[in-house]
Amino acid sequence: MGAQLKTIPTANKHYLEAELEELIKGNQVWQFLREGSLDGIWYWDLENPSHEWMSPELWRLFGIDPATKAHDPAEWQDIIHPEDLATAFDNFEKHCANPEHPYDQIVRYRHADGSTIWVRCRGLAIRDEEGKPIRMLGAHNDITAIKAAEEYAREKKADAEQATEDLQTFAYSTSHDLKSPANTIRMILQEMRRALKHGDLDDLESLLTKAEATNDSMRRMVDDLLDYTRLIGAGSEHAEVDLDGLVAAVIKDMAGDIHATGAEVSVGKLGVVLGTEWQLRHLFQNLLSNAIKFQPMDHTPQVAIRATDLKNGRLHVEVADNGIGIAEADRQRIFDLFSKLHRPSSFKGSGIGLALCNRIATAHGSGIEIQSEPGHGAAFRFSLTTLRDGS
Amino acid sequence: MIEPSISQRDYPIARLAIIDDAEFDQLLYQRIIDRSGLVGETLCFYSAEEALNYFEKPNAAPVDVILLDVNMPGMSGFDFLDHATNKSERDYTAIVVVMLTTSLNPNDVARANSFSLVKKYINKPLEEAHLVAICDLLERSPQR
Question: What percent of chain B has a predicted confidence (pLDDT) above 90?
Answer without folding.
Answer: 54
